[in-house]
Amino acid sequence: MKAKQTKNDHVLHDAWKCQRHQRTRSSVAMTPPNRGNSQRAEKKNVSPNLKEISEKEDLDTPEKVLLMKQRSSRVIKDVHDVCERNRESLAMVLSNMCAFGDPEAKAIVNEIVEEMAVKRGVKRSVEELVGDDTMSKYVACLRVPDWKLVLFQAIARVSSKTWQSVINITGLRRTGKSSLTPLLLNLNQIKAAKRMVFGACKEYMGVKKVAPPIQGFSVNLSSVVELIVREQRLHQLSSHALRLMMKLDGRPFWGRAQVLFGIVPRDGAVYSQQSAKSVYPLTIANCKEDRDNLKILFEDINHQKKILKEKGMTVDGRHYTVEFLIVLNYKTFVLLLVKKTNASFMLGGRGVSVEFCFICNAIRGCKCHDVAPDETCLDCLRSKCNIGRSTGIRDDLVFLLDEELCNIQLCALHMEMRNTEQLLASIGLLAYRVDSPSIGQCCLEKLWPRVISWRSHLSKEEVRSTVCYYKAEYPCQFNVWSNRTGNPSTP
């Protein structure tokens, strides 16, 4: 009985101790802690972030670097642990967010680049952050095509020495050095590109030498027509009927006689028909503009022109018909008219008793039977009266460019200049005969007050007075003018 009582006492004592311990713990937990002590402890236990470490001045640079490396390693380890638990990578998360236009992700990447640029420099940061393949692709996007550099050098007329100086000073040449930005071609590369581009253009345009003995070059007519079609289609001016004008011009150039034969679209896309920039050259030859040389130049052109007129041309699956119109001045037009029976015949040549008209057989003057200069014989008069003959226009002339008369136009500007020259020459001849240049000049000024001033723009032989001519044609006006100016009415 006594042993049993002792055992119950021990159980009660243990229960009392456990209850007392629980009351002690709850009282400690309910007691509010000291606020000042807790803040000091928390501040003592929290480590500074990277920005605070970098702004501390009491730390040396090696110590700062060590602390920043350690903290960065701990933080990035936690980030990697989070990514691993979600089966993702930090790079994939940020790249997708930036690709989808997330502003926070873009701000993070931008801040990374800005901070690294401050510490490592802009160029070095970009080279280290961006991969080699991406960097190469980015530099390739900045380059212009090689043919544009060749075109720039040709248009700007940049010499090889100047080009080499530019790429040396700017450091933009394409070399194996990583410190250079390979944007421009070096000298050997641009020479190779020029040789390749020029070779391709020559092959496409069909550049070749003209037939000997003439020195010059020509291109294929079909290639030029194809370029015109593409340009008109680009400016939405293309039609199934392509109308082209052919022009011939011969003049001295740098002391050497040259002949240019070109083609001009009648429906200009950019420039007008009268502009020199609208001319597509077909043939350029160093020769005089005479009939023998033009026959050699026109032989190949007539052959190509005939094929285009008969068969047309197909460009990018669309068929075009080609029509040609010859535009010449009167001098060249007369030069290209050849008589079938006489190869040396020149229409409107020197002399009086020569044929001057391409429609009829009229002659310029009459020297038959010793007639006076202002008279003519019956045969010569009959030749001038046969313009409207029943047999039609003359058919003994051949045009060297192989075109019908309806497809030939005379340039109005050249015709006006030619008529003015003929008129001035006639006036000058009469003035020379009567020896009165001052009165003739005044008469010219009266007719063309805005063109001819009191200063003589004509040679002495050309303006040596037109008194006899105007006195015979306009006697009243001539007398009034003589009385007003006080000049003698007779030489």
TrEMBL record:
Domain of life: Eukaryota
Polar residues biased stretches: 25-39
Renumbered residue ranges of the record's region Disordered: 1-55
Comp. bias regions, Basic and acidic residues: 1-17
Protein's name according to its UniProt entry: Uncharacterized protein
Organism field: Pocillopora meandrina
